[in-house]
């Protein structure tokens, strides 16, 4: 599988996990949660649609705490596009549509992925993945989300 194909599979796969996790359909176990923990690189950082910068570990804590808190949430990903590929790095954009009974939102996101093998040496004891390799062989390195006006 090519790097862009792995990145697209990762985007879709992680959002499928988020939907199941927040709906409470995924088991609330370390093994299940490893799906997201193993996907975020050691230096992962995201910029939320509101402009807040979130680091990997506090974000993971927040996701873990959200288990089952949105039983009617629906997440759909569309318009995935490769914007740049260079060696072990790939930049993509995509739209994320979230629907819950109280609200529907859309955001456009830009994400930087790094092939998992390219960052193995960068992992430290404090920021290693919890159970091994990244699910699709790529790690989320940076994510920037922007609200799409309604």
UniProtKB/TrEMBL annotation:
List the SUPFAM superfamilies hit by this protein, alphabetically.
NTF2-like
Q: Which residues form a coiled coil?
A: none
> InterPro entries, per this entry?
DUF4440, NTF2-like_dom_sf, UCP029394
> Where would I find the DUF4440 domain in this sequence?
27-109
What Gene3D superfamilies has UniProt attached to this entry? 3.10.450.50
Q: Name one Pfam family in it.
A: DUF4440
**How is this protein named in the record?**
DUF4440 domain-containing protein
Q: What is the lineage of its organism?
A: Archaea, Methanobacteriati, Methanobacteriota, Stenosarchaea group, Halobacteria
């Amino acid at each position: 599988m090519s790097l862009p194909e792995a990145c697209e599979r990762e985007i879709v796969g992680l959002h499928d996990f988020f939907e199941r996790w927040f709906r409470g359909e995924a088991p609330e176990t370390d093994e299940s949660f490893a799906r997201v923990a193993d996907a975020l690189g050691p230096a992962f950082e995201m910029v939320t649609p509101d402009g807040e910068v979130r680091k990997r570990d506090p974000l993971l804590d927040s996701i873990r705490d959200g288990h089952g808190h949105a039983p009617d949430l629906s997440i759909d990903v569309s318009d995935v596009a490769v914007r740049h590929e260079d060696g072990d790095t790939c930049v993509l954009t995509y739209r994320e549509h979230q629907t819950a009974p109280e609200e529907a939102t859309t955001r456009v996101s830009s994400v930087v992925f790094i092939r998992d093998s390219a960052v193995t040496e960068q992992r430290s004891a404090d920021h290693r993945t919890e159970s091994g390799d990244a699910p699709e062989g790529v790690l989320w390195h940076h994510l920037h989300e922007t609200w799409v006006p309604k």
